[in-house]
Amino acid sequence: MENDWNKAIGSLSQINVFSNPNNEPVTISGEADDLRCIGVGTDAAVFQYLSAPAYAFKLYAKDKVHKVKVEANVYRILGDSPFFSTCFASSDEYLVLSYEKGKTLFDCILQGIHIPEQVVNEVEAARDYVRMKGLNPRDIHLKNILLQNGRIKIIDVSEYTQTGNDCRWEHLKKGYEQYYHLIDGNSVPFWLVETIRKWYNLRGKNTSYEEFTKNILKLLYKK
């Protein structure tokens, strides 16, 4: 089974990924019958090759390919950990990762799937592990965390060599502690989750968590 991912190279060459401004998800051009898109981010799209379903291929946008080596090196430093995917190989444009089953926390909120407190605790443990390895756990958000039978898997480590704290996880944790009980078990409309995501990405650097949540509550309770 080793190196089965090589079979996907021809199909991957038929796909092009393009980044978009304002931190919006990438655009995908082209298609291949034996590839299934399983996720999109702001820098890359992830595909599962149906003839080798144990692997996922993170294909970067043309102007973001410099991040491939960076992320591959982060996976090398992280080593074998239950909190993260396994990186088997990399090329100039993509990473070969272990395919991870489960739903993202973003999808859990859309579908009303319960997110247990254990998830928060495990993300904290994962962040401690990253710091122990000399890296910086950044860019941890709803689309980067998978729920697997009550446990977590973080599926994007591309920013762990950057400095500073983007506060994404801290804000999500506060939101979970303060407001999650209001939506637990209920499906949240996609338009609402997307509106909150876009507002968060476009907020000013001087906008505090308290100010941001106040604006969201105004939206929710506007008559």
Concise summary:
It contains seven helices and ten strands. With 223 residues, the protein is α+β, with helices and mostly antiparallel strands.
Blueprint (SSEs and pairs):
Layout lengths: L8 H4 L3 E3 L8 E3 L5 E6 L3 E6 L5 E6 L5 H13 L8 E4 L3 E5 L4 E2 H7 L5 H16 L12 E4 L2 E4 L13 H16 L6 H13 L6 H12 L3
Antiparallel strand pairs: 1-2, 3-4, 4-5, 5-7, 6-7, 8-9, 9-10
Describe this structure as you would to a colleague:
By secondary structure, the protein is α+β, with helices and mostly antiparallel strands. It has helices spanning 9-12, 66-78, 105-111, 117-132, 168-183, 190-202, 209-220, and strands spanning 16-18, 27-29, 35-40, 44-49, 55-60, 87-90, 94-98, 103-104, 145-148, 151-154. It has a five-stranded antiparallel β-sheet with strand order 3-4-5-7-6, with helices on one face. The protein has a three-stranded antiparallel β-sheet with strand order 8-9-10. The chain has a two-stranded antiparallel sheet with strand order 1-2. Strand 4 and strand 5 form a beta hairpin.
